[in-house]
Amino acid sequence: MRSFLTSLFALIVSLFIGILIAQALAVWSNGSEEWLVAFGLAMLVAGAVTVVFFIEQLAFGTRKAAYVTALILTAIFALVAGMLVWASITLSTGPADAARDGPLIAGIVLPGLAIILIQWLIVRWRVPQSAEIPVQPRFGRGGQLN
Fold first, then answer.
1. Quick one: 138 exposed, middle or buried, by C-beta within 10 A (0-12, 13-18, 19+)?
2. What is the pLDDT of residues 40-74, one digit of tens each?
């Protein structure tokens, strides 16, 4: 139940922040209906990242596993974002056309990175602390120090 509530909380908070970033960029760039793509992709990224972190919590549930999961998700997202930027540059008719697409590409990439970061922070914060291993070995049932 703890994993489910953590994932639900992370989904709500990260989606709110991701949509807020996309909206701020849309207002800043005087965007129109093409920004619906950025909002839709923010929702898809938030859902996918939530599922991945939920599975990570059920399978491992450690801070190190959450860190590795966040790194892998960031690498995959960076690869996809790089392909998006490359496609925008190669398919544009000129430098002015590519510069005009810049705010929309930032509106797709930045909320996704913020969503991954926020979900990682929340999952890492909610992971139960592992018990410390004693420095000296303990023997017997009573846990007596030697």
1. exposed
2. 999 999 999 999 999 999 998 888 999 999 999 99
